[in-house]
Design brief:
Order of helices and strands: HHHEEHHEEHHHHH
Distance between the termini: 17 Å
Structural class: mainly alpha
Number of strands: 4
Radius of gyration: 19 Å
């Protein structure tokens, strides 16, 4: 996932400067600041979860993910010389609900199958921020700004929807193989829920690809460009953009 350099929203900046010791709950209690944050943060990833690249849905499968943990509501790790990670713009990313979205919010089978069903009793479906929890990310999770979706470090397995490490891409991006493997495990990116979602998209794209190839082989490149393009709102229309790039884009 490539992170776009989006300026900090003015309302958040004003709040942060006026309340440098604020907790996450205090930020959320200011609806104007909270809304400005959510509307702006999602632009960092053009509408996809920063970890799994599922397409985000406002109010139903979208939350603000703290890369460095906010340490509860007391900012227990905040002090002299340390950023207040609870409200620091560079620490705030758009994320999915990690499989904990509520079934009652959806009518489409796709959403029910691939966005819900994860809880304490079914931890195998938890992913992303819900799986990561409050662990310190150093040495365990790759900083989002260090990834490039046009040179994905993960390979897609078309047989089961799983991802594995592209060690050559890791070398090009100066990311250790150990850190890449940790990313997959710590965020549970090979959850059956995510594997099934990737497979469903891959099947749909393959059908489109085959049809285009059959009728006009020269249109293939344009088709792939359309899949990877941003819409008029600067958002991706499709999820799992790195998977698409690794499978179809010509480098």
């Amino acid at each position: 996932m490539s992170i776009k350099n989006i300026p900090e929203p003015e309302r958040l900046k004003e709040f942060r400067l006026a309340n440098p010791n604020a907790t996450w709950n205090q930020l959320k209690s200011d609806s104007d600041v909270n809304n400005a944050l959510k509307v702006t943060a999602i632009k960092k990833t053009a509408g996809l979860c920063v970890y799994c690249e599922h397409k985000l849905i406002a109010k139903t499968d979208y939350q603000i993910e703290h890369f460095h943990p906010k340490k509860g509501n007391n900012n227990s790790n905040f002090g002299v010389g340390k950023p207040n990670w609870a409200i620091e713009w560079d620490n705030l990313y758009p994320g999915c609900l990690g499989g904990t979205a509520q079934v009652v919010h959806f009518t489409e089978k796709y959403d029910i199958d691939f966005r819900t069903g994860a809880d304490k009793r079914n931890k195998g479906r938890l992913t992303c921020g819900q799986k990561k929890g409050e662990i310190s990310p150093e040495g365990l999770i790759i900083k989002p700004t260090e990834l490039n979706n046009r040179d994905p470090i993960f390979l897609f397995n078309g047989a089961d929807g799983s991802i594995s490490l592209n060690k050559e891409a890791c070398k090009r991006q100066n990311i250790s193989a150990e850190l890449g493997e940790s990313q997959i495990v710590r965020l549970n990116l090979n959850s059956q829920r995510l594997k099934d979602a990737r497979l469903e998209l891959a099947s749909s794209l393959r059908t489109q690809f085959d049809k285009a190839f059959q009728f006009d082989g020269d249109a293939i490149e344009e088709l792939v460009e359309d899949w990877l393009a941003l819409n008029e709102k600067e958002m991706y229309e499709l999820p799992f953009i790195s998977m698409i790039s690794s499978k179809y884009e010509r480098n």
